[in-house]
Design goal:
By secondary structure, the protein is α+β, with helices and mostly antiparallel strands. Helices cover 30% and strands 25% of the residues. It has an 8-stranded mixed beta sheet with strand order 1-2-12-3-13-16-14-15, with helices on both faces.
């Protein structure tokens, strides 16, 4: 090939390269997908530390976000928050979600300053050690780490055992009992020092989705109903209950006080779509599949059928779970209040319940708000669940 021909080829290649490069600079860039932003109210509840019996921070969040939407707003001796909309409406509907979470409580301090604890609620002992915790004292936060004997210091048999609660402690860096007791007191509560964050898309992790999500759902439902109050026939009371983790105690007293015709508890339920979970034993409920509506003796047939009807009409995804007995939720307490209440349980699918890092799809939370809002607006005078 002649030199002149080679130069023409080179010149053409350079021209094409420059042309493509220039075009690339003027081509429209692909739009970024919108980033999901969790609701401010929900985020505030998740950040609040509210171990059972010490729900102060969650109460403050509810006083800020829930109270302004209510026609009536009450507190009681158990720390419940009761917000009512349309107080003269019929029927009377109670929505309940508990604000308390698992925690630890200072029990004993040894002479070297190590802090031993009781548990608030049902803990899996294998999950406790090696966690950062914060002790909530009258003088502020005290940081610590849960400890146990290291695996290197165990014999073969000890390594097979799950440590008992009294074989673990909280290390706050103190050198003596006197120093430790200057910073913490017997009875001080503690929670895992684990915050809320998004894992991917609308899927998030937090230490207390159980049951800050349910608490948010019932309160956010009331806030949305307040904007459509002219369409609302029912009296609606949203109750953020306390002490559910130690026996549905807040729901027992608040159900008696509200004395509703209908009552729906919103809590978390097991998403069984992860490894090592047999649907033959636990049913099939999936993360992202929508709220789980319970069905069984604890669930009133009128409420169940209306919820399904509303969900299908509004094209809200939902799942059904078999509940063959009293559920371990506030719905159990609501059903048996006074002369009896038409009750139901709706659950938000959750993985890894009662661990420091639970997982929820926040789209399921939003779907639950939409379902309850539509249910409340569907109620007509006299629909009291009697069957």
């Amino acid at each position: 090939m002649r030199l002149s021909d080679r130069l023409r080829i080179i010149d053409k290649g350079v021209f094409l390269f420059l042309h493509v490069a220039a075009s690339a600079n003027t081509m429209p860039m692909p739009k970024k997908k919108a980033t999901f932003t969790p609701p401010e109210f929900l985020t505030a509840l998740l950040e609040a530390r509210s171990p059972t019996g010490h729900e102060f921070e969650a109460q403050a969040v509810l006083d800020k976000y829930l109270k302004p939407a209510a026609d009536e707003y009450r507190k009681d001796a158990l720390g419940n928050r009761l917000a009512t909309l349309n107080p003269k409406g019929d029927p009377s509907l109670m929505l309940a979600g508990h604000m308390d979470e698992l925690g630890l409580q200072v029990k004993y301090v040894d002479d070297k300053g190590f802090v031993y604890f009781d548990t608030l609620g049902g803990h899996d002992p294998i999950m406790i050690s090696g966690r950062r915790v914060v002790i909530l004292t009258k003088n502020g936060e005290v940081k610590g780490v849960t400890g146990k004997r290291a695996i290197h210091l165990m014999d073969a048999e000890d390594r097979k055992k799950v440590p008992k609660f009294h074989e673990m402690w909280i290390d706050i860096g103190a050198k003596s009992a006197e120093e430790a007791l200057e910073r913490v007191s017997i009875g001080d509560p503690a929670v895992y020092d684990m915050g809320f964050e998004l894992v991917h898309g609308t899927v998030g992790t937090a230490r207390a989705f159980d049951d800050k999500t349910g608490c948010y759902v019932v309160c956010e439902t009331l806030r949305r109903l307040a904007k459509e109050k002219k369409k609302l026939k029912a009296k609606v009371t949203a109750v953020a209950t306390t002490q559910e983790e130690i026996g549905t105690r807040g729901a027992i007293t608040s159900s008696y006080a509200v004395n509703p015709h209908l009552g729906i508890a919103v809590d978390v339920g097991h998403a069984t779509d992860h490894p090592d979970c047999d649907p033959r034993k636990h049913g099939k409920q999936v993360l992202g599949g929508g709220p789980i509506i319970g069905r069984g003796p604890n669930i009133n047939p009128f409420i169940f059928e209306r919820l399904v009807e509303v969900a299908e009409k509004k094209k809200i995804p939902y799942q059904v779970e078999s509940e063959p007995g009293p559920t371990p939720t506030d719905a159990r307490a609501i059903q048996m209040a006074r002369q009896g209440v038409a009750a139901c349980i709706i659950s938000i699918p959750l993985r890894y319940m009662h661990t420091p890092s639970e997982i929820v799809d926040l789209q399921d939370v939003e779907s639950c708000v939409q379902l309850l809002t539509a249910f409340a607006l569907s109620l007509k005078k006299g629909e009291d669940g009697v069957w």
